[in-house]
């Protein structure tokens, strides 16, 4: 009789039930699309002062956060750079680009620059469609941008209105038919420099205590506006006090730093708690 080849079933090593549970969790997580957020900033430093904590916090929660800087703030928001002398707009832009990119890296976000100019910031139809395309590409779960009014800086409300209109266009089936439209991501207006004059009233207080050091490291990247570092530290402390007060005096949660936001649209929910 000839030699016969015998085949034996492959015996897998026993796996710990905890390992199996973890593997299933990882597999399920891999099937869930990553959550995303979009930040529309008029100038290259606005997202740092006003939303750096929210960006860092949500990145740590697993969000992919993308920032659009409509301008570098080369004319109106770079006084320290201009005072050095022998500066041009292109040199100032290059410096602001480097600062903003470094800050975004610290916060863990991606960033792109539209270079639309500032003082004044103006948007044509091409810029509007370009931003709508970003909405389509990112498919944000929420959007952060400026307040609707700011008598001290007209670039800020223009950015807010541009973001809102781009959001609406990105929802339209007839805009670039065949592309995936976006849903209805909530829009939150971050805090303007002088909220009382801007009609801005926060209805969301975000606890950023756990990521404050990261936000402050991003703030320190903005060397062209060093005079604002201390101011926005005080703002964060003030909002932290208010956040602590609003969760009740009996709460043992420690809140030191916060950010304020004003929502533009009603919250839809089945649970009011």
TrEMBL record:
InterPro entries assigned: GlcNAc_PI_deacetylase-related, LmbE-like_dom_sf
PANTHER family in the cross-refs: BLR3841 PROTEIN, N-ACETYLGLUCOSAMINYL-PHOSPHATIDYLINOSITOL DE-N-ACETYLASE-RELATED
Protein name: Uncharacterized protein
Organism of provenance: Yersinia pestis
């Amino acid at each position: 009789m000839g030699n016969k080849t015998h085949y034996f079933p492959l015996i897998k090593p026993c796996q710990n039930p905890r390992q199996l549970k973890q593997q299933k969790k990882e597999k399920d997580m891999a099937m869930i699309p990553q959550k995303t957020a979009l930040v529309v900033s008029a100038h290259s430093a606005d997202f740092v002062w006003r939303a750096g904590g929210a960006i860092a916090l949500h990145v740590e929660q697993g969000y992919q956060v993308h920032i659009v800087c409509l301008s570098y703030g080369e004319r109106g928001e770079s006084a320290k750079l201009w005072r050095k002398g022998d500066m041009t707009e292109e040199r100032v832009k290059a410096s602001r680009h480097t600062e903003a990119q470094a800050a975004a890296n610290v916060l863990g976000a991606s960033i792109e620059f539209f270079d639309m100019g500032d003082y004044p910031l103006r948007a044509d139809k091409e810029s509007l469609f370009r931003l709508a395309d970003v909405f389509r590409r990112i498919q944000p779960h929420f959007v952060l941008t400026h307040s609707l009014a700011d008598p001290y800086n007209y670039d800020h409300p223009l950015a807010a209105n541009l973001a809102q209109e781009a959001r609406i266009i990105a929802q339209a089936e007839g805009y670039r038919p065949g592309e995936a439209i976006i849903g209805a991501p909530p829009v939150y207006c971050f805090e303007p420099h002088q909220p009382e004059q801007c009609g801005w009233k926060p209805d969301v207080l975000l606890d950023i205590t756990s990521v404050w050091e990261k936000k402050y490291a991003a703030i320190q990247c903005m060397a062209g506006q060093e005079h604002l570092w201390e101011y926005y530290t005080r703002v964060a402390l003030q909002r932290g006090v208010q956040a602590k007060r609003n969760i009740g005096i009996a709460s043992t949660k420690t809140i030191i730093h916060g950010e304020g936001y004003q929502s533009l649209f009603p919250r839809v929910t089945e649970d009011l708690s």
